[in-house]
Amino acid sequence: MNSADVKEIVKAKYGEAALRVNQGGSSCCGATPASGLNCDPITSNLYDAAQTGALPEEAVLASLGCGNPTALAKLNPGDVVLDLGSGGGIDVLLSAKRVGPTGKAYGLDMTDEMFALANDNKRKAGTQNVEFLRGEIENIPLPDNSVDVIISNCVVNLSADKDRVLREAFRVLKPGGRFAVSDVVTRGEINDAIRKSVLLWVGCVAGALDEIDYGAKLRNAGFEQIMIEPTRVYRVEDAREFLSSAGVDVGAIAPEIDGKIMSAFVRAVKPVAKSCCGPSCCN
Q1: Tell me: the pLDDT tens digits for 124-171?
Q2: pLDDT band (50, 70, 90) for residue 35
Q3: Do residues 29 and 154 touch, judged by C-beta distance below 8 A?
Q4: Is this model's pTM higher than 0.85 or not?
Q5: Once rounded to an integer, what is the mean pLDDT over residues 165-194?
Q6: How far apart are CA 193 and CA 179, in angstroms?
Q7: Closest C-alpha among 150, 182, 156, 234 to residue 72
Q8: What pLDDT, in 10s, does the model give residues 38-58?
């Protein structure tokens, strides 16, 4: 499957998720509607009531993440924050509160339905320091060196061109800027039945990088101070219903995947250019 196919599948499924929320339902990381607020172990119980109480209900219901980057990322008053794959806008709205009126929170999403839902949630929240952008995380529509912090919630793993995503993130970050995302990663070999499943790609699992590969790609993009911290490690029983609904024979592959899929908080820093006044560089 090429990157264009993956992109269209992800766009279609996340568009369906936004429409379900608009129709009074809830969403989930996977490709099927939720029976409750959460339909798989990856998206459940990520935000506490203190965070979500003041947000529009639709922003909460549209959350498709695997973590809570706004709780883990260091955000300072006045920071410019960019959320890659912002969906219904929950992390953008939460970030906007933390950076305050002197800061700015951008959200970027390629799905028309999510873009519309996010702007509706912005209006309901009455937040002034928020701007939602329509576009792809492989081609961020912001200038070089313009962002202090990049966050994302279970979206980088959905891209079929992760190297380009990380290069773009590096480009738009200011020197000293921080990459601080929640994502699904894997540890060790994963059965091909999962890697090849389109439904699981949309469900945040099949496109996940091995944690070692993720770190290598960040270094290749130019990042330093790379840390990948697991926040949830999934057991087979946690995901039995989720995997079975995607047509995976859980019993057959259980020994090969148990404990190898996890949500993680991924940190990295864009280095500050070192000044040089020696004869080798100032001539």
Answers
A1: 989 999 999 999 999 999 999 999 999 998 889 888 899 999 999 999
A2: very low
A3: yes
A4: no
A5: 92
A6: 31
A7: 182
A8: 455 555 555 555 555 555 555
89-118 CB burial, b ≥16 within 10 A, e <16? bbbbbbbbbbbeeebbbbbbbbbebbbbbb
What would the two tokens of residue 243 be?
A: 């995997």
| C-alpha separations of 70 from 154, 181, 255 in Å | 13, 9, 34
**Could you give the CA distance from residue 7 to residue 116 in angstroms, rounded to a whole number?**
19
What DSSP string runs through 105-169?
EEEEE--HHHHHHHHHHHHHHT-SSEEEEESBTTB--S-TT-EEEEEEBS-GGG-S-HHHHHHHH
Bridge-based pairing of strands 173-186 and 261-269 is antiparallel
Q: Which residues of 150-178 are buried (b: 16+ CB within 10 A; e: fewer)?
A: bbbbbbbbbbbebebbbbbbbbbbbeebb
What backbone torsions phi and psi does residue 220 show, to the nearest 5 degrees?
-65, -30
Looking at every residue in the chain, the average pLDDT score rounds to: 80
Distance CA(123)–CA(118), nearest Å, equals 9
Rounded CA Rg of the chain:
19
Distance CA 269, CA 34 (A): 36
d(CA 47, CA 69) in angstroms, rounded, equals: 10
Contact 48/94 with Cβ under 8 angstroms?
no
CA 82 vs CA 91, 149, 156, 171: distances in Å: 10, 6, 13, 13
β-sheet bridge partners, residue 108:
84, 133
Question: Whose structure tokens read 């070192």?
Answer: 274
Give me the phi and psi of 256, to 5 degrees please. Answer: -90, -15
Structure tokens at 255: 């020994």
